[in-house]
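Example with several molecule types.
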Amino acid sequence: MSRVTRWLAPRAVAHAHCDIPCGVYDPQQARIEAESCYKIVQKYNDSTDDVFRTRCLAVKEERAELTKHHIDVMWHDYFKPEHVARFPDLHDVCWKASKQASLVKRTVDLGEAQKLLDLIDRIDMMWRETGGPAATRLAAG
Amino acid sequence: MSRVTRWLAPRAVAHAHCDIPCGVYDPQQARIEAESCYKIVQKYNDSTDDVFRTRCLAVKEERAELTKHHIDVMWHDYFKPEHVARFPDLHDVCWKASKQASLVKRTVDLGEAQKLLDLIDRIDMMWRETGGPAATRLAAG
Amino acid sequence: MSRVTRWLAPRAVAHAHCDIPCGVYDPQQARIEAESCYKIVQKYNDSTDDVFRTRCLAVKEERAELTKHHIDVMWHDYFKPEHVARFPDLHDVCWKASKQASLVKRTVDLGEAQKLLDLIDRIDMMWRETGGPAATRLAAG
Amino acid sequence: MSRVTRWLAPRAVAHAHCDIPCGVYDPQQARIEAESCYKIVQKYNDSTDDVFRTRCLAVKEERAELTKHHIDVMWHDYFKPEHVARFPDLHDVCWKASKQASLVKRTVDLGEAQKLLDLIDRIDMMWRETGGPAATRLAAG
Amino acid sequence: MSRVTRWLAPRAVAHAHCDIPCGVYDPQQARIEAESCYKIVQKYNDSTDDVFRTRCLAVKEERAELTKHHIDVMWHDYFKPEHVARFPDLHDVCWKASKQASLVKRTVDLGEAQKLLDLIDRIDMMWRETGGPAATRLAAG
Amino acid sequence: MSRVTRWLAPRAVAHAHCDIPCGVYDPQQARIEAESCYKIVQKYNDSTDDVFRTRCLAVKEERAELTKHHIDVMWHDYFKPEHVARFPDLHDVCWKASKQASLVKRTVDLGEAQKLLDLIDRIDMMWRETGGPAATRLAAG
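Resulting structure tokens for the full complex:
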């Protein structure tokens, strides 16, 4: 499927439901912040301007902190014991993702920022495989 | 396209780029918070428990505030003069969406929460029509 | 009324009232944060101390973010359709002010910090011309 | 100088200067949040709507917290030992103002909200009498 | 070492050191917020005042959120793979503590608030058994 | 009671009680953040890495701000007029501690970070001498 086709497709097609308080979850919240980190690292490395580079480091700190927060929300709010039964490495993947976000605060190595995205994508996969999209997001009208 | 097919599809297929600081934008950030408001209103109306209902009102206040923040980010950070030229009602749609989020703080009317989602979907449409997905999000690996 | 006369005028002349939640508004909230940015830029340029200059950039980031927040509050919470009818460039002025605050994050050019103050003063003028002081602030006892 | 005269006086008459980081101070920041508390208490008492009243209590909590923060900033950031020498009750007034803001969180008594405004006005007076406006605010252009 | 003995033991006996950014950790940060929740639940149940009870629910929401944050910090920032090797239920205890903090948001059952304290005490025990006090806190002078 | 003895003493010896909202206080909250500042200054001085040093300055800013917040909470929420009667320098010690935290934002001098810890220990002493531990913390089970 081409990019154009995908973006034209409806994003959700049925009424979602949830039975817990604040039952809306989406790993995209973590991914969006982690993409921010990735781009900041990229721009940092492409720049020689001291003011810009200092700002990159300060802003990356915040974005990586938000990434950690959204990973935590997935870990302790979305995932349930039955999900751990299905994915025995669930705790470990979330833990590694959090620790990778800490590392992304400390580094300007683009490969590390990519590893963070990859770990979030593994959380995203577990969310999808456990029915997350239909259970937690509302359908577009 | 079925829901299953859609979720199986890659979410982004090419390397994104941006030429401004912190160039990652996605109206899903606003929509996720607004869906939270929608579900909270729904649960509020389905409940007769005083403790639960009070919590719904307090939490909705925060979620609607986050919705406003993410709408603001789209308005003043993502959209550029050329986008206003293309969508003359751009300011008005963003303004109405912000005001609707204020209204959602004040009400427990589900129809108003739906109107907020609809207004965010209009912002989402303008983001898509102006090349937002490819320009602002990173491709999944 | 000239700018000087405006500053000489009493800031609140009658018991304020409001019929919406949280009806207290004053562009001084945005201006105070923007003045902070101005002074930080000034001090940055006057200094040769690396520790101090790095702190200036990190703190300016926060102050400019607060400026944006307070501009947003004026735009979507204080201003009403009748104000847009009276000031057709209202959306544009608020938009430019927000974008200027973003620029102030990125620069150490004092002229840009001054432009931000000037744009906030235009919002302040529209607030005054639409009866903002009497309608939104409480009179000193 | 009487209170009325004070309000009539220009708020900033010369280019401000400061020799410490972030030298912009204005008790209006505390007063604006405290006015918010006052109006919320007023509206709470005028309403019989349960949803509205619950929201009033939740929002007042935040506004009073911000009031405390801005009082704290005046106390420990603006005021210097020479100001305490001039106003021996400076610590006591700031302390009472902070404690009054705590009380305003707990009460829906409009008289207590007024007392908070009065205490902030005493801080404002000490700020003016110690040259605060000229020293800490920038002149309008 | 018994719990009583533990409380009698010195809290910091040597100059701490760390080789990672921000190496100061102490489960007391989580416990202090969780004690706040406990007392709020207690006071809620002892009161018949509607204003007070509504405030209890709103404030408890924030305090339980802070509790979760501090539990998360212990989990992903303090604990290392060798600690998991020593305490195989480390992930599970932290996960249950986070979920219990979520539950404490939802309930006014004092027993649930006590269970949260107990779970934090288990994290505290693992922190102590892994040398946390000496490694992460500074000795009083 | 000597400092060493104090650290050896049990931290909570009876079921705590409080008669005000949110009656849990502990100067350790301020001390933990101030220790963070101390270690950051130490690491800053031990490093020659520009990225790391810039991060130190940005993170220290936040940690010192949290220190100030927790000092403020002790000052205006925990301490009562009878405590000022007993410790006439109470206002002055808290004021100096807050100002010292401001200074710690500005400096990379380890001695200044130590002075902040010492001032917080004086607040801690006043909290202990006024029965703070038993009155404000819950006993471990």
